[in-house]
Amino acid sequence: MSLLKKTKSYEIFCAMACFLASYMSQAQIYTNTNLEMGAERFITQQIKLNPDIKTNIKALPLDARLSKRACESPLSYSTNAKPPFNRQVTVKVKCEDISGWTQFVHVRIEELHPVIVTTQAINKGELITRESISIEFKPKHFVRASNLDAERYLLGSRSKRVIRAGTAIGLHHICMVCKGDNVTIYAKTRTLTIKTTGVALQDGNIGEQIRVKNQKSGKTISARVKDVESVEVNI
């Protein structure tokens, strides 16, 4: 090879090396962790978080054999899915500069809903207290529609059956008004509320209609369970 050709080849090599060095000095280097965290942030921004539930958003780990990648321009994130998302979403991460690479990241979304569970075994007819229950968060697909998530429905109610420790409590486990209970009857008109006493002839929970015997008149009436040991009737 002539000296001139060697010189030109060397100059081209130097130019390419300088360009690569300049590019690498300006480019951002991305690890798998960077890409996973970016995908998680992107999905978090797409969904409307419910303050009453816990939402865990976690990217599945990328292949550890993937090497670090450089990109001079900011990465773009996109997905073909539309919120509300399923339990897993694929995020497309793209570098749109001269290197032009793309990486797909799978992101898992798990909703944890509050459920009231027993902290100890509760016997049939036993009063439910604050010490006997606690709130736990469980995956949505493990939560039944009958499970309770608010203590106000439970405190002061009684168990209709034996409940094992760690059981998620539903309305079918309890009675806010139990058969034989002395209850307060609220008789309401548009302008007046009359208060009297009675005896429950049926078990019932909030919103349910049960038969109640008015202790003063001796009459049996149909009343709606208002709260623990109280019912309501419109007149």
Brief sketch in words of this structure:
The protein contains 2 helices and 14 strands. It has 235 residues and is α+β, with helices and mostly antiparallel strands.
Largest sheet: 5 strands, antiparallel
In terms of DSSP E residues, the strand content is 35-45%
Report the radius of gyration as a whole number of Å: 33 Å
Shape: elongated
Mean pLDDT: 88
Tell me the span between the first and last alpha carbons: 110 Å
Order of helices and strands: HEHEEEEEEEEEEEEE
- What's the tally of helices? 2
Category by helix and strand content: alpha+beta
How does this model look, in words?
The protein is an alpha+beta fold. The chain has 2 helices and 14 strands; from the N terminus they run αβαβββββββββββββ. It has helices at residues 3-26, 32-46, and strands at residues 28-30, 54-59, 69-71, 76-78, 88-94, 102-118, 133-139, 158-159, 174-175, 182-188, 193-200, 209-214, 220-227, 230-234. The strands form 4 sheets. Strands 2, 4, 5, 6 and 7 form a 5-stranded antiparallel beta sheet that branches. The longest helix has 24 residues, at 3-26. It is elongated and about 90 Å long. The termini are far apart.
Tag the structure with descriptive keywords.
five-stranded antiparallel beta sheet, 235 residues, 2 helices, alpha+beta, five-stranded mixed β-barrel
Walk me through the topology.
Elements: H1 3-26, E1 28-30, H2 32-46, E2 54-59, E3 69-71, E4 76-78, E5 88-94, E6 102-118, E7 133-139, E8 158-159, E9 174-175, E10 182-188, E11 193-200, E12 209-214, E13 220-227, E14 230-234
Parallel strand pairs: 10-14
Antiparallel strand pairs: 1-3, 2-6, 4-5, 5-6, 6-7, 8-9, 10-11, 11-12, 12-13, 13-14
